[in-house]
Amino acid sequence: MVGSDTFSADAADTTAEALSGELPDELTEQRVIVLDFGSQYAQLIARRVREQNVYCQIVRHDLSADRIAELAPKGIILSGGPNSVYEDGAPKCDPGLFKLGIPVMGICYGMQLTCEALGGKVDNTPSREYGRAACKITNHESLFAGMPDDMEVWMSHGDQVSAISDQFEPLAQTGTCPYAAVKHRELPIYAMQFHPEVTHTPLGGQILRNFVIGVCGCEASWQLSDFAEATIARVREQVGDRRVICGLSGGVDSSVVAALLYKAIGPQLTCILVDNGLLRKNEQDIVINEFSNHFKTDLHVVEAEDRFLASLAGIDEPQEKRRRIGHDFIECFKAEAEKIEDAHFLAQGTLYPDVIESGADPDGPAATIKLHHNVGGLPEELGFELIEPLRDLFKDEVRRLGLELGLPEILVWRHPFPGPGLAVRCLGEVTKEKLDVLREADSIVVAEIEAAGLYRETSQSFAVLLPVQSVGVMGDARTYDNAIAVRSVNTDDFMTADWSRLPYDLLAKISTRIINEVKGVNRVCYDISSKPPATIEWE
Ligand SMILES: Nc1ncnc2c1ncn2[C@@H]1O[C@H](COP(=O)(O)OP(=O)(O)OP(=O)(O)O)[C@@H](O)[C@H]1O
Ligand SMILES: O=c1[nH]c(=O)c2[nH+]cn([C@@H]3O[C@H](COP(=O)(O)O)[C@@H](O)[C@H]3O)c2[nH]1
Ligand SMILES: NC(=O)CC[C@H](N)C(=O)O
Ligand SMILES: [Mg+2]
């Protein structure tokens, strides 16, 4: 055990009293939902709404009108999407949602769907618009209140609404698109062909503000600090006088969760670091050090390398590796919890991308991309009640929250490291020997990125051990050794990412050092794939 029983996060102490009050539920109930039809920009819409200080959540496109009524959002936004509404099998929404009396705004595909559902017609158009378009506003009511007659908008469509029903009236047009924006004559239903969520529509923020504040009547009261305060109050109420164990990896998400929980329940919190043998070089020491510098609460370290390596032995299928790791984590938490009286809750730093990529959000849009160990990889019988306060947030929001909670920059800006750790970077079967090779190579990659002053400019940089041997010549002798792939990406939210344009000299240095210093490696490659279509991790 490390540290003492009393946690005193430096920053946590400074604001703990200020954050003690109960919060009105309206803060989180004033939400707008985005129905995602597979848009590239669904998250961007959610972000832009949150930037108006209104809480926004993405949900699956076919959520039933009954479920929407239960969620009682203040507004509903229908996103764009790659399909054409007239195709067989094109994704539709429950038409009942138009009758709920809740304001609706359709964007691009969302517009085409809205107009078609309410008696209009959508066709493929020879005058497709991709990119900038000049848009003329013909009706300055509500949505376009306070805006000039002419504005620049960003379009991306091959179909368009060719006829609207009598229920609608036009609000704006472009040279080739007669219905660039429309409104229902009686119901609070709006739709636009262009994308207000992208920065290339300079007045898009104002349009979204007019919708969420003006039309939906949201109070613009949501802030990350309110979110923290609401969460703290809720956790305090939920936990009562029982105890919470928090899976703490030393990463950003679990550190933010630990800081929130400490503010909520102070000494009723125990953090547990599982050393699963899949951590980076010296990681256990680094985490213990950082943790005791910034927090002084109960920290248990569980030594579980043998357990994890035994259950991974002989397994090469990535999803099965993740599933086993998820289960082992829970077994470790359970075994450790037996030593702690009344440990009823398990807290984890689960974020929204973990939930969508695992295909695990019952209200969410997405297919399973990979089973994140903390969501899709969990066993059915948990044995704990889960506390996941960050489940609806994206990484960059969690980072801002961490800074607001006073966590140090060095922790907040740490590159993420997945719970399944080196196991998903050691492709195929995992063995201790392979992990040791990978750990050394990885530490060189990170050290060189740091030495080049590029740690903050890149978002995640690491090494991957490929299941490939190739021929080399070292010291005039033939080698037949392993290949390492270097991966470095730039991203804010880890949902999409581009490969980092690292300088050649840096790549050369990384390659030389790995081949010279890591026994068993004779070849280094640089991964130049973006996400999508690749993912950041290789498994
Ligand atoms: N080694 C570990 N020991 C205990 N809990 C862990 C460990 N690794 C991951 N977890 C739990 O799983 C959650 C999800 O892991 P994830 O890697 O996404 O978040 P993180 O490690 O907190 O932050 P980061 O994304 O910066 O790495 C963590 O927040 C933590 O609760
Ligand atoms: O805690 C985690 N458990 C997991 O199972 C997991 N899988 C991926 N990641 C991290 O998530 C981000 C996106 O990763 P991908 O592009 O590989 O899906 C990247 O930051 C990955 O490192 C995980 N984190
Ligand atoms: N961006 C979109 O929503 C596109 C909608 C539809 N696929 C079109 O091409 O018109
Ligand atoms: Mg992590």
UniProtKB/TrEMBL annotation:
The lineage's top-level taxon is Bacteria
Enzyme Commission no: 6.3.5.2
Q: Where does ATP bind?
A: S249, G250, G251, V252, D253, S254, S255
PROSITE patterns tied to this protein:
GATASE_TYPE_1, GMPS_ATP_PPASE
One annotated Gene Ontology cellular component of this protein: cytosol
- Gene Ontology MF annotations: ATP binding; GMP synthase activity
Q: Which residues form the GMPS ATP-PPase domain?
A: 222-414
Q: Which reaction does it catalyse?
A: XMP + L-glutamine + ATP + H2O = GMP + L-glutamate + AMP + diphosphate + 2 H(+)
Point out the signal peptide segment: none
Active site location:
C108 (nucleophile), H195, E197
Q: Which UniProt keywords apply?
A: ATP-binding, Glutamine amidotransferase, GMP biosynthesis, Ligase, Nucleotide-binding, Purine biosynthesis
Q: Which InterPro entries match?
A: Class_I_gatase-like, GATASE, GMP_synth_C, GMP_synth_GATase, GMP_synthase, GMPS_ATP_PPase_dom, NAD/GMP_synthase, Rossmann-like_a/b/a_fold
Q: In which pathway does it act?
A: Purine metabolism; GMP biosynthesis; GMP from XMP (L-Gln route): step 1/1
Pfam families in the record = GATase, GMP_synt_C, NAD_synthase
Q: Which Gene3D superfamilies match?
A: 3.30.300.10, 3.40.50.880, HUPs
**Assembly state and interactors?**
Homodimer.
Q: Which PANTHER family match?
A: GMP SYNTHASE [GLUTAMINE-HYDROLYZING], GMP SYNTHASE-RELATED
The protein's role, per its UniProt record:
Catalyzes the synthesis of GMP from XMP.
This one is known as GMP synthase [glutamine-hydrolyzing]
Taxonomic source organism: Stieleria marina
Its ancestry begins with:
Bacteria, Pseudomonadati, Planctomycetota, Planctomycetia, Pirellulales
